[in-house]
Specification:
The complex is a heterodimer.
Chain A lengths: L2 H22 L3 H21 L3 H26 L11 H23 L18 H11 L2 H22 L4
Helix pairs in contact in A: 1-2, 2-3
Chain B lengths: L2 H21 L3 H26 L3 H31 L13
The chains are: A mainly alpha, B mainly alpha.
Chain lengths: 168, 99
């Protein structure tokens, strides 16, 4: 086992363990804080996949933006920790049905063979750095989706403000 | 590293998020689980981008992150509106459309 594999297994274990704690912990604030190691280890896995720009955006948008949004809302609504049983009957039933379908999915995945996709678009290191390559592809091939995404974010922002403001 | 390992960790993360949506009742935790699932999908995109030596997967991760940010903003606004009306963020207290 080489060093890359050890780092990968450590990151994967950290991501899975903290993701599990997100859905397992009783306190919503703890769930939100357990998201941090998940997002950061996924960002580190992006670096291993030579997607440095995506890793930086992951840290900025998820760990910096979305998580702060979650924390603000948790403090705003002031929810208390869940009382009573951790798993109730219909929660256990729906959870086990979900786990069974996921096990089916993973077994199908284990049986199949992963084919490498045919290369198209920009190569990973065609223009030097990863950021430069992403920018080149984004502003050439995907210019219209990029502009639509900006409009989409504007609509989402207006919608969030309208939904969350006090009724006049 | 082969692509299988990355797909496997993405599958495990997606499963955890999916089970979280199914078993938790707090709307905020459900939104967090959705973020976990979107993260797993992004990991799959990045793994295949690395495997196929193509840039398209990473650009798609960018768009998925856009959708995730918008979804978190609108979803949390809905949670706040729900809390104002029902004094709770429990999805089982939102019973207006329940049969």
């Amino acid at each position: 086992m080489n060093a890359t594999a050890i780092v990968f297994y450590a990151l994967a274990g950290l991501a899975c363990a903290s993701a599990f704690m997100v859905i397992w912990s009783r306190n919503v604030m703890h769930s939100a804080l357990y998201l941090v190691p998940t997002f950061l280890s996924v960002a580190a896995i992006y670096v291993m996949l030579r997607a440095e720009f995506v890793a930086a955006v992951q840290v900025l948008v998820y760990a910096g933006g979305i998580l702060v949004l979650f924390l603000f809302v948790i403090m705003l609504v002031n929810v208390k920790a869940v009382q009573g049983a951790r798993l109730r009957l219909h929660g256990a039933v729906s959870g086990s049905i979900g786990a069974a379908s996921i096990a089916l999915l993973l077994s199908v995945y284990g049986r199949g063979r992963i084919l490498a996709a045919a290369p198209d678009g920009g190569k990973l290191t065609e223009f030097g750095g990863n950021l430069e390559t992403v920018g080149w592809v984004l502003y050439n091939e995907y210019l219209l989706p990029f502009e639509i995404a900006s409009l989409f974010l504007l609509v989402a922002m207006v919608g969030a403000i309208v939904l969350a403001r006090h009724k006049a | 590293m082969r692509v299988d390992f990355f797909l496997l960790i993405a599958g495990v993360l997606f499963s955890i998020g999916c089970i979280g949506v199914l078993i938790r009742r707090n709307a905020i935790v459900i939104l967090m689980s959705i973020e976990l699932m979107l993260n797993a999908v992004n990991l799959t995109f990045a793994a295949f981008a690395n495997e196929g030596q193509t840039m398209t997967g990473q650009v798609f991760v960018f768009f998925v992150m856009t959708v995730a940010a918008a979804e978190a903003a609108v979803g949390l606004a809905i949670v706040i509106a729900l809390f104002r009306r029902r004094k709770s963020t429990d999805v089982e207290d939102a019973t207006l459309l329940r049969w």
